[in-house]
Design goal:
This protein is α/β, with parallel strands linked by helices and 365 residues long. The protein is globular and about 65 Å long. Strands 1, 2, 3, 4, 5, 6, 7 and 8 form an 8-stranded parallel β-sheet that branches. α5 crosses α8 (213-221). Helices cover 33% and strands 27% of the residues. Bound molecules: guanosine-5'-triphosphate and magnesium ion (MG). Magnesium ion binds next to α1.
C-alpha cells in the first residue's frame, strides 16, 4: 500500500496539533486509518499526550526536528505502520522548523517514493498572531515558513471579529506561490475542504526555499525552550483547573515583565479521573482550554509543561521555577520533577538537503 504523508508546518502555536486532531477524527469518519507523528527539540510533549488522550495512534520524534533527525523520522514512520497500518500519516514538524521541501519532502520522495505519497506542503498561519515584538530573525523564520508553503491555511478565523473577512489578500500578495484557505482548526470550519486537497493532490515538488541558514539558526537560538514533567502534591484537595490557570497566567505575566514574547506556553494536567490541557499562544490573549474539567479536585496531579518564548533559556528556567513556587496550591505543597530541560535549539543541520526538484514521476503508482 502507498501511504499518504501530510506534513503540516507553521510557527509555534499556529494550531498544527489542533488541526491534525480534528483532521484525524474526520478522516476516520471517512473510513481511513490515520496515524500522527509529533516532533520536538526536546522530550515529553504535550502534543503527544493529547493525541494519546484522543485515542489517535501517535509516535514522537524527539530531540531534534524531522530534517535533522531524518533517520528517526523513518523509524517513527515504520513504528506507526507497525502499530496502526495507517492509510494517512499526519506529521507535525517543530514550529521553529522550515526548509521542509528540500530536507524532508524531497528526501522522502527520492528515497522512499514507492512507499509514500506526499500531499502538498501545508503551513498554518495564525490569523491573530502579532510578531512585532519578536526578534527580527524570528520574523524572518516565520516568513520563510510561509514562503515555502504549497497551501497556506489561515487559522483561528473564528477569533476574528464577526464582521471581518479573513485577511487573505495580503497573504496572497506576499506568498503568491501558495493556495490559500481560511479555516478554524478548532471549530472544524474549512477543514473538510483542506482534506479534499490532501487526499486528491500531491506535492508539486516546487523549487527549494531560498533561505539563509545563518539567520535561521539565529532565529532558533533566540528562542528559549522548556519541557518539564512533574508532580505537584498538596496536603488538602485543590482545584486542578484553577491551579493550571494560575500557572499559565503567572507565566504569561512573568514573560511580559521581561518583555519576552510568547510563542507558545502549554500545560497538560492529568489525574486518575480527569485530564486538562490549556495554552497561551501570545501575551494578552486569554487562556485557551482544549480539555477542561472545572470540578476536578485533587491532592496531587501530574503535569507536563512546554514553554517556547523569545528569551534566553537560563532566564526562562529561572522564571519557570519562581513561578511554580508562587502558584503552589498550598504553602506546604511540593513539586517532584521527573524531567526538566531548558535550552535553545541548536543550529539546524539537516541530514539531507536536496536542492533541485526530484525528477518526475515523484512516485510510482
Ligand atoms: N479559537 C481557536 N483556537 C485555536 C484554533 N486552532 C488552535 N487553537 C488554539 O491555539 C492553541 C495552540 O494550538 P496548537 O494546535 O497547540 O498549536 P501548534 O501549532 O500545534 O503549537 P506548537 O506545537 O507549540 O507549535 C491551542 O490552545 C488551540 O486550542 C482555532 O482555529 N481557533
Ligand atoms: Mg503542536
Amino acid at each position: 500500500m502507498i501511504r499518504t504523508i501530510t506534513i503540516v508546518g507553521g510557527f509555534l502555536g499556529a494550531g498544527k496539533t489542533t488541526l491534525l486532531l480534528t483532521a484525524a477524527r474526520r478522516l476516520a469518519a471517512r473510513g481511513y486509518r490515520v496515524g500522527l507523528i509529533t516532533n520536538d527539540q526536546g522530550a515529553d510533549l504535550v502534543d503527544t499526550s493529547l493525541a494519546q488522550q484522543a485515542d489517535i495512534p501517535v509516535t514522537e520524534v524527539a530531540g531534534g526536528c524531522f530534517c535533522c533527525r531524518f533517520p528517526d523520522l523513518l523509524v517513527g514512520l515504520q513504528r506507526l505502520i507497525d502499530v496502526a497500518d495507517p492509510h494517512i500519516i499526519l506529521a507535525e514538524p517543530v514550529g521553529s522548523c522550515t526548509d521542509l521541501i528540500a530536507t524532508v519532502l524531497r528526501p522522502l520522495v527520492s528515497f522512499y517514493g514507492e512507499h509514500y505519497r506526499l500531499a502538498p506542503l501545508t503551513v498554518l498561519h495564525d490569523a491573530t498572531r502579532n510578531l512585532d515584538a519578536f526578534a527580527p530573525d524570528v520574523r524572518y523564520l516565520h516568513d520563510r515558513q510561509l514562503a515555502e508553503a504549497e497551501l497556506i491555511l489561515l487559522n483561528k478565523c473564528d477569533l476574528l471579529p464577526n464582521d471581518a473577512a479573513p485577511p487573505l489578500g495580503q497573504l496572497a500578495r506576499d506568498y503568491p506561490q501558495a493556495h490559500l484557505l481560511a479555516i478554524s482548526a478548532k471549530s472544524g470550519a474549512g477543514v473538510d475542504g483542506w482534506l479534499d486537497i490532501v487526499l486528491g493532490q500531491e506535492s508539486r515538488n516546487p523549487e527549494a526555499l531560498l533561505i539563509d541558514y545563518e539567520r535561521y539558526a539565529q532565529a532558533e537560538a533566540a528562542l528559549g525552550w522548556l519541557n518539564a514533567r512533574g508532580l505537584v502534591r498538596a496536603d488538602e484537595a485543590f482545584g486542578a483547573a484553577a491551579w493550571t490557570e494560575d500557572l499559565l497566567t503567572a507565566l504569561a505575566q512573568a514573560c511580559a515583565n521581561l518583555q519576552a514574547s510568547i510563542a507558545h506556553i502549554k500545560a497538560l494536567v492529568t489525574m486518575p479521573d480527569a485530564t486538562l490541557k490549556a495554552s497561551i499562544a501570545q501575551a494578552a490573549s486569554p487562556i485557551m482550554w482544549d480539555l477542561t474539567n472545572e470540578q476536578a479536585q485533587t491532592i496531587s496531579l501530574e503535569f507536563t509543561l512546554n514553554v517556547r518564548v523569545n528569551a534566553p533559556p537560563q532566564l526562562l528556567e529561572q522564571v519557570v521555577h519562581q513561578t511554580l513556587e508562587r502558584v503552589k496550591p498550598q504553602p506546604s505543597a511540593r513539586y517532584y520533577f521527573t524531567h526538566f530541560e531548558c535550552f535553545s535549539p541548536l543550529p539546524p543541520q539537516p541530514t539531507h538537503r536536496i536542492e533541485t526538484p526530484v525528477a518526475s514521476p515523484m512516485r510510482l503508482y
